[in-house]
TrEMBL record:
This is Acyl-CoA thioesterase. The keyword Hydrolase applies. PANTHER family: 4-HYDROXYBENZOYL-COA THIOESTERASE FAMILY MEMBER, NOVEL THIOESTERASE SUPERFAMILY DOMAIN AND SAPOSIN A-TYPE DOMAIN CONTAINING PROTEIN (0610012H03RIK). InterPro entries: 4-hydroxybenzoyl-CoA_TE, HotDog_dom_sf, YbgC/YbaW. Belongs to the 4-hydroxybenzoyl-CoA thioesterase family. Keywords: Hydrolase. The lineage of its organism: Bacteria, Pseudomonadati, Pseudomonadota, Gammaproteobacteria, Vibrionales. Gene3D superfamilies: Hotdog Thioesterase.
Length: 146
């Protein structure tokens, strides 16, 4: 177990929004924000060496059970953004917090989170604590980045 304040594990990606992701008003359709969150979460899990394929191979799937998004400022199409994903809970569930920043000004445009729980593929049961395979990866990351 990590002693003291744990190191937050974060990942970041930069992209330029696409025209096809915009609504008729020229701003990114609200449902597409979750795609950006997903891309950042994918980068985060890769940092832990626990990609979606590795999750499945370890005997677990991690469905999202709760999510929230706060739209602070609309994002136009053809606009640079920076998306961060930070692992903030992992012992009993997986909580990832997200922030989308304006790629030009650095202003916060959106924030949100997702929560996921481990479900055993074999038993089809939700786990009340995160599997050891996952917590070991988080602890290893902390040990190697202290």
């Amino acid at each position: 177990m990590t002693v003291g304040k744990p190191i937050l594990i974060s990942a970041e990606l930069s992209l330029t929004t696409n025209f096809q992701d915009a609504d008729p008003m020229g701003v990114i359709y609200h449902g597409n924000y979750f795609r950006y969150f997903e891309e950042a979460r994918h980068q985060l899990m890769n940092k832990l060496n626990y990609s979606y394929r590795e999750m499945e191979a370890s005997g677990y799937v991690w469905p999202i059970i709760d999510t929230r998004v706060k739209y602070v400022k609309s994002i136009p199409y053809d606009h640079p953004i920076r998306v961060t994903a930070t692992l903030t809970e992992w012992e009993n569930r997986l909580r990832v917090d997200y922030v989308i920043y304006d790629g030009e000004t650095g202003a916060r445009m959106t924030k949100g989170y997702t929560m996921q729980v481990a479900v055993s593929i074999d038993k089809r049961e939700m786990c009340f604590v995160s599997p050891k395979i996952f917590t070991d990866k988080v602890e290893a990351y902390h040990a190697n980045n202290a």
